[in-house]
Amino acid sequence: MRVLLVEDYRPLRQSLSQGLREAGFALDVTGDGTEGLWYAEGNPYDAIVLDLMLPGVDGLEILRRIRGKGIQSPVLILTAKDTVADRVTGLDAGADDYLVKPFAFEELLARIRALVRRRYDEKRPGIEVGDLRIDPAARRVHRGDTEIELTRREYALLEYLAMRAGQVVPREDIWEHIYEFNSVTTSNVVDVYIGYLRRKIEGPGLTPLIHTIRGQGYMVGVRG
Amino acid sequence: MTGSLRRRMLVWTIGAMLVLLGVFSAVLYGGIRYALIRQFDESLLVTARLFCAGVEIDSETAAPEIEAGVAEAYETPGASDCYGLYRGDGSVVSESSNAAGLARFARVVGRKAANEGEAAKKRAPGMKATAGDPENGRTETAKKPPADGPAFGEWTAADGRVMRVVALRFTARSDAGDSRRGGPVVTEKLILVMARDATALHRELGVLGALLWGLSGVTAAVAVGAAAVVVRRGLAPLETVAGEIARIDPDDLGARVASAGMPNELRVVTEQLNALLGRLEEAFARERRFTADAAHELRTPLAGIRAAIEVALTRPRDARAYQTVLGECLGIAGRMQMLVGSLLTLARLDGGQRRLERVEVRPGLLIETWADRARTRLEGRAITLECDAPGGLICRADPELLAMALDNMLDNAAEYVNESGRIGVAVRRAGQSVEIEVANTGSTLTDEQVGHVFERFWRADAARSGDGHSGLGLSLVKKTVEAMGGSVSASTCGGGVFAVILVLPTW
């Protein structure tokens, strides 16, 4: 899942980017409002964590502009402003959630996960495709009763595809949602990781779950 | 009477009205009574004088005689008048049949005349009366007429009738015819007392009195009611205002008391109250803003510390990683400590809790101390510090506060000076004060922005929070300098030079 963090207070930005990356998110980070707006407008983020007081363009303005352009990425406002008026203004400007500093990092993670679920119209905290079960909070995957060990990248790929189970997902989409902006790769690496994943979750005697749709992309699901 | 304004107004108004009404009625009654009785007495006196004219002395017997027909009129049944004619010594000459007891009036008048006659004789003979009877001189009875003049009084007759009485002394003479015949002219002082039934008069006066008192009572009752209504109506706006004031919510000082349609006296009060509310609202808003800003400034670094620690704890890490996090947290804690210190200083100066010291301070020395501390920071960015501070220049100030003001002015300059820029410091004596100017290049502030630099938590860029620059520096400078009785101003001039000038009085 790809997340944008816009926070101008350097120590917090550093800790959060480390924490969010370690939590498995593909993360773009900036401390500047103008840059934040540019990132938000150009990439399909699964969640945006936005500070309000920013140099350049302030957080509320970023929010209004991206909502004005019809960008659907869920936005979580992260700010020290705690009055009811501030919260109302933020939520009314198009934010999906509001978290006041200081906050528990665990809570921030949980809220981001909730926003991501909502983005893919998923209410259940876990994802199930056939006998494949994914627990995003613990980042664990089971096929039947067997736990499957995945690398960071493999997990991110599977989680994204499973979130969109039943849909044909183009390579470009996959690449955009599991790689950060600065990654020096192309969407071709997606094919490589699909190969790794297949080997780990589709053992002999198990139903194939990852399907290649020629010329379009991939689909996760149990085929009738 | 400090309780209710309404009761006080009511009591005073009604009291004053009742007293006025009472005095008015009494005077009116007295006046009318006096006039009526006087009129009655006058007519009685006329009758009495006519009677006197009918009394003469028989020159032969030297005895007083009443003309025929005069006395008889008093004997008709139901006559309202009665008379008594007496000699000077009070002996009866003639009395009408119902005049028993009238003699005492004659005795009183006679005695008075005798007394005054003697008194007049004792006085200087040349001072003999100019008016009244030449024999007795000028005398007065109890009611001040001359000795011969009529005296009036009231008498209850034997049959119970209340009568007005007039008593007068007159000189009866032998009739003119006798004198012409050559008889001697005989004169004698006689006293006539005449009484007339005044029952009707008293009845009329009684009716008048009853009428007046009754009218006064009714008027008083109506007045009391009217006063109560008027006072209540008059004070009604006061209650309206009180109600409005009571409805003002201390959490929402934006409310105002409506002064439209109020009486002028109350409008002044409500306008003053509204002005007070305005000032309060402003002060509260300032306080709230300051608290909110302070909370914001403290929350941001706190969030930094918490996130750093929590992220570090999400998994086991090597010692270096922990050291980095701890170093980071220590740095944040240091900046928070400075911020809390600044806030505390501001709060104490605001509350007037700090006692000022007055000792000799060398500003030059304070600037040197700061320059030593900031050396690495300045040299790293190739910043030049130009200092024109005569070491011998001494001012009397609170050393701690002056150091705080200077440190903050210099820190501010170092914060905003451009790379390879210049910070200029000048200390000079200007008359009775000492001026300290700190200027830096690289400022991008507009004139409008310069007007805000001393506001708490104000920053040209609202987003520069939590980076160790609290936005309190220059407001602290202002507060400390003002606490020491000085003043501070800021300005920009061409070439991006921003200057803060501090003026301290020398004691």
Supply the CATH superfamily name of the domain at 355-505 in chain B. Histidine kinase-like ATPase, C-terminal domain
Roughly how many Å apart are the termini of chain B? 54 Å
Cα-atom radius of gyration of chain B = 55 Å
Shape of chain A: elongated
List unreliable stretches of 5+ residues of chain A.
none
The major sheet of chain A is characterized as:
5 strands, parallel
* Beta-strand content of chain B: 15-25%
- Under the CATH scheme, which class of the domain at 355-505 in chain B? Alpha Beta
How many distinct helices of chain A?
8
Description of the structure:
The complex is a heterodimer of chains A (224) and B (507). Chain A has helices at residues 10-22, 33-42, 59-68, 84-92, 105-119, 152-163, 171-178, 188-201; strands spanning 2-6, 26-30, 47-50, 75-79, 97-100, 127-129, 132-135, 140-143, 146-148, 210-213, 217-220. By secondary structure, chain A is α/β, with parallel strands linked by helices. In chain A, strand 10 and strand 11 form a beta hairpin. The radius of gyration of chain A is 18 Å and the shape is elongated. Chain B is rod-shaped. In chain B, helix 1 (5-53) runs antiparallel to helix 4. Among the domains of chain B are: 54-197, no CATH class; 355-505, Heat Shock Protein 90, CATH 3.30.565.10. In chain B, the strands form four sheets. Chain B has a five-stranded antiparallel beta sheet with strand order 4-3-7-6-5, with helices on both faces. A five-stranded mixed beta sheet of chain B has the order 9-11-12-14-13. Chain B is 50% helix and 18% strand. The chains are: A alpha/beta (224), B alpha+beta (507). Chains A and B meet through helix 1 of A and helix 5 and helix 6 of B.
Tell me the layout of helices and strands:
The complex is a heterodimer of chains A (224) and B (507).
Chain A (H helix, E strand, L loop, with lengths): L1 E5 L3 H13 L3 E5 L2 H10 L4 E4 L8 H10 L6 E5 L4 H9 L4 E4 L4 H15 L7 E3 L2 E4 L4 E4 L2 E3 L3 H12 L7 H8 L9 H14 L8 E4 L3 E4 L4
Parallel strand pairs in A: 1-2, 1-3, 3-4, 4-5
Antiparallel strand pairs in A: 6-7, 7-8, 8-9, 10-11
Chain B lengths: L4 H49 L1 E3 L6 E3 L14 E7 L4 E4 L7 H20 L28 E6 L5 E12 L2 H5 L6 E11 L1 H49 L16 H50 L5 H32 L8 E3 L1 H18 L3 E5 L6 E3 L1 H18 L5 E9 L2 E8 L6 H4 L22 H11 L3 E7 L3 E9 L2
Helix pairs in contact in B: 1-4, 5-6, 6-10, 7-8, 8-10
